[in-house]
Amino acid sequence: MSKKKHSSSINKVLTQLVLDIFEQNGNTPLNYKQVSAKLNIRDPEDRETIFDILKDEAKKQTLKELSPGKFQLLELKTFIEGKVDLTNDGSAFIVTDDEAESDIFVAPRKLRNALNGDRVKVYVYAKSRGKNKEGEVIEILQRAKMEFTGIVKLSERYAFFIPDDRKMMHDIFIPIGELNGAKNGIKAVAEITDWPADAKNPIGRIKHILGAQGENDTEMNAILAEYGFPLSFPADVEHDAEQISDIITPEEIAKRRDFRNVTTFTIDPFDAKDFDDALSFKKLENGNYEVGVHIADVSHYIIPESALDKEAEDRGTSVYLVDRVIPMLPERLSNGLCSLRPKEDKLCFAAVFELDENANVINEWFGKTVIHSDRRFTYEEVQEVIEAKAGDFEAEIAKLNALAYKLRERKFKAGAISFETTEVKFKLDEQGKPIGVYVKERKDAHKLIEDFMLLANKKVAEYVSKMGKGKHKYTFVYRAHDSPKPEALASFAQFAARFGYKINTKSDKETAKSLNFLMEDVEGKKEQNVLTHLAIRSMAKAIYTTKTSSHYGLAFDHYTHFTSPIRRYPDVMVHRLLFHYLNGGQSANAEHYEKLCQHASQMEKKAADAERASVKYKQAEYLQNQVGSVYDGVISGVTEWGMYVEIIENKCEGMIRLRDISDDFYTLDEKNFAIIGQRKKKVYQLGDEVKIRVKNVDLTKKQIDFSLVVE
C-alpha cells in the first residue's frame, strides 16, 4: 500500500489514464511497471499506486489478472454506430440501431464536433457510467443537418450566427464576405461550410435572408427551414410542371372506365385548394349501391426519376402550418391538373365497390377512371344537408352517410380504436396575427369521407397482399401500426384508473373495446385532452413499410395509403405499384421500396414537428399581450423541472417551473404522473385543474411561462 496519500479526485484521474492505456493496447497484457512507463511515472510510490489501481479494477472486473501482476482488459474496446441525442448540458447519448443495446454516454469534450442527430462511429470504453457505457466519437459518418435558422450578430470585422435550435450548442462564425447582404439582427438561414478540427466554432455562410424577427412570414419560413423543408421549388421542377399538357385526349379516355355521367362530388375543408378525392354514387338495378372512391391520378403526370418525381420523393409530404400549406407538388399540379375541381374532366385512379344495404362489399374493382365532379362541397355544407335532410344530392348523401355508419360500426366491433383529439385552429388577421382560437369539430360529414377512404385503403392493401405466397409475396407499401408495448399500456391503465376508468389489457380486442368506452366517457370532460393524448402516447407510431404488417389502431390486417397522392409520396408509390400489378407486372424491388418507406416515415415526422412548432408559435403570439391574465387550466404534463398546463378556454399550453412554486420544494413522481411537495405533501397530478397567470412569453423560443395562482 502506498504511503503517499492521493486524493480521490487524483485517483479517479489516474484510473482513467490507466484504463486508457489498456484500451489503446487492445488485447496486450500489462503489468504495473509497463503501465507506469507508458504514463511516464518513475516515482516508486506512484508506481505502487498504479499497482493498487490495477488490483482494484480487477476486483471490479474491469480488468482480469491473467497471472500474478499481469493484467488484461476484461472487455476489449468496441466500435459502434448510432445517432447523437444531445442533452441540455452539452453531453450526449448515442442511440444505437440495436434496441437491446444500451445508449452510450459521451462527454461534451469527446463529441468531436458531432451535432444532435448526426450518425457517428463511437469508440466504447470498457468501463461504464452507471447504467450506461461510455465512449467517444471517433468519426462523423453523416450530418443530420448543415443548415440552421437563427439571428445574425454583426461586428466590424466578422459576424456570428446564433442558431434557434436549442440543441445546437455552437454559434456559427460567418466571414464578412459570406453575409450575402444580411444585416445585424436579421433572421436568416446559415449553412456550415467548414469546421476545422482545432476550431471551437464551425464556419458558415448566410444562405437565405428570412426577414425581420417577429414578422409572420419570417417566422413561418424559419420553421420550415429549421425542419429541412425547402421554401420554394427548384427552377427545373417548376419548368417540368409547366410543360405538362392539360389536354385529356380521347385516346387516354378510351383506356379508362368512364364515370363522367355518374353522380360525383368532392367534400373538403372550406379553405382547401386541392381536391384529391371524390365519391361517385349510383343505385344498381339489383338494389345494391355502387360507390366509387376516385383519387387524383398523380402518377399519370409524374414520370419516375424525373426532376418532379425526385423533388416529391425528397419532400415526402405536404406540410400544413397554421396559416399555409407547403405543397409536395408545384401549384400547377396540386391546385390545377390533379385537383378534382368541379365541372372539369379529371383523370383518377379508383377503388369502386358494390355494397349491399348493410355495407358489405359484394364486388370490388380497381383501375384508372375519368370523372366530371358535379359539385364541390365543404364539410359544413354536407353536414347541413345531413341535418336538414334537404339540399343538393340529399338522397345520395343520406345513403352514403348510412353506409358509412355501418362501416364504422363494423370497424369498432373488430377492435378499432376511436381517438377524437381536439384540433386547435386560429383566427388570423391580415398580417397573420392570431386574434382568436377555436376548436375544430369533427361531425358526420368528416367521418363519412374518412370511412370510405379507409375502405379504399384497406381493400387495396388486401388485394395486393393476396398476390404471391411466402417469399414470393408482391412488394407493396403498407401503413403499419404495431400494438402498444405492455408496459406503456399498463402505465396508462394505472393512470386512467385514478379518474375511475378501467382499461382491460387481457387482449388487443378487449383493450380496444375499453379504450373506446373511455373515449366516449371522457368526451366534454376536463380530463378528455390529457387522457386522449396519454392514450395516443402509449400507442406505437404508425410507419410506412414493405413488410405486411397489420394496423392495430384500425384493427385491419392490411392497410395502405392510396387516397392522397397530391400530398403524400407513399400514395404515389402505391398507385404505381398497384397499376403495375393490375397490368401483370412482376414483384418490384423490396429493398428499394423499403428505403423509400423509411424516408417517407422520417419526413412525415418532420412535417408533424413543423406543424406543432407553428401552433406553439401562434399560441405564444396569441398570449403575448395577455401577460398578467389569469386562466383556468388542466395539468397536461409533468417533468423534473416543471409542469405543463393547458388553458381550458383556448387550449394554449405553457409551463409552471418548479422553482417558481414557493410554498414547498417539489419533486417529480414519475410513476404517478405527479409532482409532490416534500414537506406539506401537496400533490399536483396530470389532469388536475389549476388556476394560472401568464408570466412570460418568449416568441423566439416559442415558450410560454405560467405562474401558479393559489387561492
Can you offer a commentary on this structure?
The chain is α+β, with helices and mostly antiparallel strands and 711 residues long. The protein folds into six domains: 8-73, Arc Repressor Mutant, subunit A, CATH 1.10.10.10; 78-142, Nucleic acid-binding proteins (OB fold (Dihydrolipoamide Acetyltransferase, E2P), Beta Barrel); 147-213, OB fold (Dihydrolipoamide Acetyltransferase, E2P) (Beta Barrel), CATH 2.40.50; 238-412, no CATH class; 461-610, no CATH class; 627-708, OB fold (Dihydrolipoamide Acetyltransferase, E2P). 31% of the residues lie in helices and 29% in strands. The strands form nine sheets. The chain has a seven-stranded mixed sheet with strand order 13-20-19-16-15-14-21. Strands 3-4-5-7-6 form a five-stranded mixed beta barrel. Strands 10-9-8-11-12 form a five-stranded antiparallel sheet. A hairpin with an 8-residue loop joins strand 14 and strand 15. The termini are far apart. Residues 1-6 have low confidence and may be disordered.
